[in-house]
Amino acid sequence: xxxxxxxKFTGDLASEVSLEDLMQxxxxxxxxxxxxxxxxxxxxxxxxxxxDALRDAIRQALEDGELLDEEGQQRLQDMSAEELEQMIDxxxxxxxxxxxVTIAQPPEATQASTQxxxxxxxxxxxxxxxxxxxxxxxxxKTLRDLLGSMGKSSFGRHSTRDQATGIEASGSSRPYEFxxxxxxxxxxTLNSAIAREGLDMISQGGALNIEYxxxxxxxxxxxxxxxxxxxLDCSHSMILYGEDRFTPAKRVAMALxxxxxxQYPGDTLSLVLFHDSAEEMPISQLARVRVGPxxxxxxxxxxxxxxxxxxxxxxxxxxxxxxxxxxxxxxLPDGRIYKNAFGLDPLVVSETLEEVARCKRAGIMINxxxxxxxxxxxxxxxxxxAMCHGKAYFTTPENLGNYLLMDFLSRKxxxxx
Length: 417
Hints:
alpha/beta, Rossmann fold, 3 domains, six-stranded mixed beta sheet, 15 helices, disordered C terminus
């Protein structure tokens, strides 16, 4: 009789790696802001979108030892270099299949990959793109971490001091007015009719006539919608002085996007980057944004944000400005950029404050989150807050998210120093 040998099934090591944990480990690489190369421009970031860069990041995440248990880590250490590369290939395939990344290979790279000895060349030419699913996942992770530190887990919509009529009653009733939701308060309606006609008629078996003036309806809290523009500074100073301030700001913007999309579906969120000039950027492209060797054209950012908000019909409109530098640039009427990075230039400051005044006249609140305590910046932001009745938060990259989310959720007028 033929002997059958049974061995323990060890499985595929690549399948034991959680893609969620892997994406969390790759977050710094996917959200890179140019901190390692402070003088890079938007157009130069393609070098970090190569398949080689993704493979290197996965290899480093595996070597860090946080993706596998002790047994899996031991098996990983016993792997040959060829087996490790095969495992990385399998992980990239899983990321593609589950729509975390998309990989595009140029025609010449596809041809090169079929030739022996030119796989590395093909990988260096192939590009990968972060999908909306990845951004949504990273935003959710950031939001969960922020809410965990705040001690909150759930929220409703934006509450106001006003009252309205609706299905969810939350207090007293009032006489019905044309156009109200007909959510009758039966007790108040009957009491009004009885008080008008008296109890004698009812005791004698007469009918109780309810008139229009007797109708009362329940009141509920009036919940408004809000249009928000995140005004994000991507000038050179955001990654200077040995600190990356831009990556935490990107994470918070993604968390805010996830919060609005899932908990406040009536709200809108737009993203505006301001540097030498200003540009609107889709939230889906936020992970690819980097800082560059630019100055701070705050006025141009406010102008663009105001144009975006003017197209909205929401009850509340606000600008959330995240910056670490005072205004140092200005777009002149002929299109040229005037720059002065030394001190508070009177021309730049006056034109910027004039744009703040326009925002105030349009009913737009400006809340500023300052990532530095430079005297010139503090002085400028205090003027902005005083003009538009907004709030100024003196914060750091580590607690930026807590301050921003608390402001968004509470809507209370207070300044945190």
